[in-house]
Amino acid sequence: MTNRSKRYETLSKKLSGKDILSLDAAVSLLKQCANTKFDQTVEIHVRLGIDPRQADQIVRGSLVLPHGIGKSQRVIVFAKGDLAEVAREAGADEVGQEDLAKRIKEGWLDFDVCIAAPDMMGLVGPLGRVLGPRGLMPSPRAGTVTPEVARVVREYKAGKVEFRNDSGGNVHAVVGRLSFDEQKLRENIRAFVDFVTALKPNSVRGTYMRGIALAATMSPSVRIAA
Question: I want to staple 33 with a disulfide (CB 3.0 to 4.6 A). Which of 107, 171, 206, 219 is the partner?
Fold first, then answer.
């Protein structure tokens, strides 16, 4: 059995037994959990009525949240020539080619986002066994394989989040910090939910959005209406 702190147990009693809440009520309740010495991350977890075994029911994407996520993401870029230069100017933390691939093969993974110019995929492809399991592999569908590396770097630096459903048909994402005011948190959460709703695969039948929960780093979850 996992040992919980007294603080966590107190919050659990406060949140337990709550029915599905409106977004306003849920955010207000979650904000009451902001009593730690650090600024907790707020995450959203969405249970979808999809069959993750079916290729045509995969739900993935990325979007720039209205108010960012409250942290600066470390972004690396595989590019050369002019694209490498514009990536640096846009704020990329690391830009490289073979040297960058070598560091990753040797175990360096101190970054949150990996972007690649299309002509770099021959170099980046073999890194899939390292980057893939960690959700860091660049892909055209996610927009991280692109000739517009500068634009994408700026988007991630501004608070872009990327997600893909897991094997249970759930999607997870960071939607802010507990230090955000309630309106900003609500707007970020609503933007994410609306975006995922719009990605409903045509082959899905029945209820698509089956459940939504919010939680902070050190708080129990609270359920909200879709």
Answer: 219
| Res 55: pLDDT | 93
Q: Residue 206 carries which side chain, given as an amino acid letter?
A: G
pLDDT for res 13 = 53
- CA dist., res. 67 & res. 46, Å (int): 20
Task: Name, in order, each residue with C-beta under 8 angstroms of 3's C-beta and a sequence gap of 6 or more.
Answer: none
Condensed to tens digits (0 to 9), the pLDDT of residues 65-95 reads 999 999 889 999 999 999 999 999 999 999 9
DSSP the chain: -----HHHHHHHHHHTT---B-HHHHHHHHHTT--SSS--EEEEEEEE---TTSGGG--EEEEE-TT--SSPPPEEEE--HHHHHHHHHHT-SEEESHHHHHHHHTT----SEEEE-GGGHHHHGGGHHHHGGGT----TTTT-B-S-HHHHHHHHHTTEEEEE--TTSEEEEEEEETTS-HHHHHHHHHHHHHHHHHT--TT--S-SEEEEEEEETTS--EEE--
- Give the other-Cβ count within 10 Å of 167's Cβ: 7
